[in-house]
Structure formats: C-alpha cells, structure tokens
TrEMBL record:
This is Trace amine-associated receptor 1. Its main location: membrane. The keyword Glycosyltransferase does not apply. SUPFAM superfamilies: Family A G protein-coupled receptor-like. It is a multi-pass membrane protein.
Length: 367
C-alpha cells in the first residue's frame, strides 16, 4: 500500500481551520467539547479520533477477520505449493512468492495499521513508523511486480508453447522473483528514509501535517505522480496489454488447437489435458490480476489526485480505501480454492492430516 493515512491526518479545505478539520470523520464523534490527544502531556501532539464503542467494536472485528483470513489462507497456499512436488512449476513458484507477500502484509502491516485506524494515533516509535510504511509500500509494489511476472510467464505459455520450456526455467523464475523483491524494497525504503515524498512541499508538511503520535505518509504533487505510476499504473497497463494479447492469440489459435487435439485424442489424452490446464491456469491468474486492480485502483486514483485538489479528500475515505486494498490479500486464496481443483485437493489433504503420511509430498493432485 502506497499511502497509509491515519484518520487524524490534517486537511485544509476552504472555510475550515486545521483544528476544525481534525474533528471530521465518518466514524468520529462530532461534539467539539470532546477533545483528546494522542499524548496529553506533550505539546504538538496529534488529536485522537473519538469513536463510539459500537463503531470501535465493528472496526476491530472487521479488521481482525481480514487479518486472520489473510494469514491463514496464504499460509495454506504456501504449504500446498511447497509440500507437493507436483506443484513445483514456474507458475506456482511465482504464486508462492506472491502468497508470501500477502502473508507478510497480514502479519507485519495490517495489525499496526488496524491500531492506527481505530485509535487515530501511532503509539510506536518513529523509526517503527518508517519501517512499517516502507514494508507497506514494498509489499504492495512487490505484489504487482509479481503479477506482472506471472503475466509474462502466461504469455510465453499460451503464445509460445513450443519454446516455453526453454524460455521459462527455474533460473528465469528465480531472477523474476528476486528482481520483484529487491527493486520493491529499494524503491520503498529509499522513498521513506530519504523523504523524497516531501520534495517541493516540506514547509506545508512541517506546518500543517507533522505532529507527535502520527504516522503520516505525505506526498507532494511530483512524488505522488511518480510513485503511483511506478508502483501501480505502469505495471497495471503492462498486465492489461499482455492479457489482451493473450486473449486474441488464444482466440485465433483455438480452432487449430482443437483440430490437433482431436487428431491426437485416439493416441493420448495428455495434449488435450495440457491445453485445458494451460487455459484454465491463465484464466485463473487473469482473475487474480483483475481482482488486484479492482481492489487497489480506487486508492491509487485518490493518492494521485489528492495533492492536486489541496488534500481535500476525507482521511476516513482514504483509510477505508486502504483496507479495501488490503482485502485483496485475503481474497487470493479464495480465488485459488474456487478455480484450482488441485488447490482444493491439497487443502483437503492438509486439513485432514494426511499431509503427515509418508511420501505425501508425491501425491498426484491432477493427472
């Protein structure tokens, strides 16, 4: 996630003072006499967002379920692919690394973000805020880079099936995975620790945004455009173009493939089965990419638009869009379970305890 904003982040629309706007939130209590700060004994402390007990319970329950589903679901995906030897394919290795992104997001990013969203304050150290923000940006960027690599791998599998095995090897996948993690980490932590996100708007940030007890990620106009394009829009357009090309190529080759499959059916069922698995896998991964884009597009549109409209988008809306993006990490295992028969079979084996049987790693999940 590129821009985790706390509800107490300060905005300055026309006609309101900064302190007035601090009390505005769709989940906050609007009585101006109820004023509380993150640190009452410290001057310059951020103002805490006051919420009713019912709202707090609802938020805590919703976020806890999201974290639990994210961690449990992606852990099952990782165990399935890592344990069963039949699943050790280039596509599944990329899915394994993508599931690791989602798992780390659920363990290290979502819980602190939930505390900040509920209380409107950051109660951890400043360096922890930077580490948390850097990991947040890194994991969201790595996720979309992984999906871009998956798109490229599917393009080779569908559009160049005869040269697929020579092009996509274990070393190729390892390079893709390593590049996705390293580039994302360097990009994210460079922005956070060098404060390039403030370039051109340092005075505004120091006078209007910075306060004790907050964990703000503020982007000036230039940095918002650059980071949003690199972390989301450019990879998203590349993936859209790749899958569009895959669709038209597969459509054009469908008749010839069906004819070849019918000719070989008397001798072997494997060509037809291979074609089915390839198309099924491509469709499933296209759904994964589509869900990712749906979940994160609203946030990144707001992120890139907000600096150009004087930061007038309500913080509560941005915080809600952040969690809508987080929801993507919880949905991926359900997509696999719904569309991948081998994953459903692997889940049954793991949950039933048969995974502890001798040579269970050699069980054939599909023929």
């Amino acid at each position: 996630m590129l821009r985790p904003l706390a509800d107490q982040e300060i905005r300055k629309p026309a006609g309101r003072t900064i302190m007035d706007y601090l009390n505005i939130s769709v989940f906050s209590v609007h009585d101006p006499s109820d004023t509380s700060f993150c640190y009452d004994s410290i001057n310059g402390s951020c103002q805490r967002i006051l919420r009713t007990l019912d709202v707090k319970i609802f938020m805590i329950f919703t976020m806890a379920v999201t974290v639990l589903v994210t961690v449990t679901g992606n852990l099952l995906v990782i165990l399935s692919i890592a344990h069963f030897k039949q699943l050790h394919t280039p596509t599944n290795h990329l899915i394994l690394s993508l599931a690791m992104c989602d798992l780390l997001l659920g363990i290290f990013v979502m819980p602190p973000s939930a505390v900040r969203s509920v209380h409107g304050c950051w109660y951890f150290a400043d360096v922890t805020c930077k580490l948390h923000t850097g990991m947040d940006i890194m994991l969201s960027t790595a996720s979309i880079f992984h999906l871009m690599c998956v798109s490229a791998e599917r393009f080779c599998a569908v559009c160049s099936p005869l040269t697929y095995r020579s092009r996509v090897r274990s070393a190729t996948v390892l390079c893709m995975v390593s590049a996705s993690w390293i580039v994302s980490a360097v990009f994210a932590y460079t922005i956070v620790f060098s404060e390039l996100n403030l370039k051109g708007a340092e005075d505004f940030y120091n006078s209007q945004i910075r306060c004790m007890g907050g964990c703000h990620v503020f982007f000036s106009r230039g940095s918002a455009v650059v980071t949003s394009m690199v972390s989301f829009f450019i990879p998203g357009l590349i993936m859209f173009g790749i899958y569009s090309r895959i669709y038209f190529v597969a459509r054009g080759q469908a008749r010839s493939i069906d004819f070849l499959t019918n000719q070989l059916r008397m001798a072997s069922h494997r060509p037809g089965e291979f074609r089915y698995r390839t198309r099924k896998g491509t469709m499933t991964l296209a759904v994964v990419v589509g869900v990712f884009l749906i979940c994160w597009t609203p946030f990144f549109l707001c992120n890139i638009l907000d600096p150009f409209i004087d930061f007038s988008i309500p913080p509560a809306l941005i915080d809600a869009l952040v969690w809508f993006g987080y929801l993507n990490s919880a949905l991926n295992p359900f997509i696999y379970a719904f569309l991948y028969p081998w994953f459903r079979k692997a889940l049954h084996i793991i949950i039933s305890g048969a995974v502890f049987n001798r040579n269970s790693c050699r069980i054939q999940l599909y023929s």
